[in-house]
């Protein structure tokens, strides 16, 4: 069984993430979405909220998908999950430079696990969780970037923190 992991903060999960999840799930037998905490990204949602959000969004997909949290090196997480593939989404050239460097470092840590890059759908390439949060904080509409349920989650969260 070929297992892949798709790591990220998913704060919040966007249509771009969902595109990569759907396409990534087609190239592996099982896809494990690893939700991690990255304090440098100032998460809007707690790890438990993000896990619940991602689980809800992938629940109807016709694929074997698991959603777990992790707080370790990516390669340790991938090995623990039995993965042979790491799925990474790319939006732009700037993403590629960072991801290329990360893939090289990961290969040095464990050369049995391959990194596979998937380009986000053209209409989804500009979407970034960071920008979705910024737009929402200033009262802008985010419904073009996230599912209706996620838009409601963001709105509810912002209303509770004001």
If you had to describe this structure to a student in words, what would you say it looks like?
This protein is of the alpha/beta class and 162 residues long. Helix content is 43%, strand content 19%. The chain has helices spanning 15-25, 47-58, 74-80, 93-109, 129-137, 148-161, and strands spanning 3-8, 30-36, 65-70, 85-90, 114-119. The protein has a 5-stranded parallel β-sheet, sandwiched between helices. The radius of gyration is 15 Å and the shape is globular. 31% of the residues are buried. The mean pLDDT is 93.
Keywords:
5-stranded parallel β-sheet, Rossmann fold, 6 helices, about 160 residues, globular, single chain, about 45% helix, alpha/beta
Spatial separation of the terminal alpha carbons = 47 Å
Radius of gyration equals 15 Å
* CATH class descriptor name: Alpha Beta
- Name of the CATH homologous superfamily: HUPs
Fraction in beta strands: 15-25%
Helix content: 40-55%
Question: What is this structure, in a nutshell?
Answer:
By secondary structure, the protein is α/β, with parallel strands linked by helices. Helix content is 43%, strand content 19%.
Please write out the topology.
Elements: E1 3-8, H1 15-25, E2 30-36, H2 47-58, E3 65-70, H3 74-80, E4 85-90, H4 93-109, E5 114-119, H5 129-137, H6 148-161
Parallel strand pairs: 1-2, 1-4, 2-3, 4-5
